[in-house]
Amino acid sequence: QFDLELAKIQKIYPGGTLAVEGFDLRVEKGEFISFVGPSGCGKTTTLRMIAGLESITSGDLLIRGRNFTNIPAEQRPTATIFQNYAIFPHMTVYQNLAFGLEVRGLPASEIKSRVDAIIDTLELGDVASAREAALSGGQKQRVALARGLVTKPEILLLDEPLGALDANLRKSIQEELKILQRDLGITFVFVTHAQSEALAMGDRVVVMNAGRVEQISDPFELYTRP
Ligand code: ADP
Ligand code: ADP
């Protein structure tokens, strides 16, 4: 059984733009899949359909064999990390991390242990009481990651999560993501327009162009293709 399965998944926006033409993809549990391609090729739309943030025009979305095509975002075992972090500025880091669990109605003791654990994993202890304005770019990105992971998703969806970071920081967060993949055993779907990043991060790379999949291959094949 696959962790994530897209079956002829297609998106036509109101107004008629065919953003994603419909393709098949099967992702194993724990796999790191990169989506790469030029701006406007349909990467974000695909990710948002997986997250439930965008309706699916036709086709099916399965997670661990269960059909989630029409299931609302908040009932999906996914978490999404956006480039702009989407941190609540009036809350501390700790409160940002607890918030998503509070709205899910988890008991206070469970919230505390989960938030403490993720703060530890992502080394955010020094800034737990800080607000967004006081954080560096790398810290903001780790808070955004922590906020997704604290909900214990089965699939972590990342939309250009490193785009706002400088080269050194990008490298270190790339490494952290690969460590998280190894340690947590969850599935990663990673959208980027940067081919080098897609190759560096992905166990497999989905190359998109104009709403279609051009190829799906492992990074080594892409490197060595004449
Ligand atoms: P990418 O993430 O690869 O840059 P997108 O998925 O954002 O591509 O966009 C794919 C296509 O769908 C583009 O032609 C874009 O203009 C269009 N599109 C994206 N979002 C919307 C929307 N909310 N309404 C209408 N068209 C959209
Ligand atoms: P990205 O390249 O990351 O997809 P964009 O700058 O293309 O981001 O899109 C930003 C926002 O505008 C998204 O919410 C997207 O859905 C929306 N959008 C993009 N293209 C269109 C479009 N042609 N019509 C309406 N909304 C769009």
From TrEMBL:
<keyword id="KW-0813">Transport</keyword>
<dbReference type="GO" id="GO:0005524">
    <property type="term" value="F:ATP binding"/>
</dbReference>
<keyword id="KW-0067">ATP-binding</keyword>
<feature type="domain" description="ABC transporter">
    <location>
        <begin position="4"/>
        <end position="226"/>
    </location>
</feature>
<dbReference type="GO" id="GO:0140359">
    <property type="term" value="F:ABC-type transporter activity"/>
</dbReference>
<keyword id="KW-0547">Nucleotide-binding</keyword>
<dbReference type="GO" id="GO:0043190">
    <property type="term" value="C:ATP-binding cassette (ABC) transporter complex"/>
</dbReference>
<dbReference type="GO" id="GO:0016887">
    <property type="term" value="F:ATP hydrolysis activity"/>
</dbReference>
<protein>
    <submittedName>
        <fullName>ATP-binding cassette domain-containing protein</fullName>
    </submittedName>
</protein>
<comment type="similarity">
    <text>Belongs to the ABC transporter superfamily.</text>
</comment>
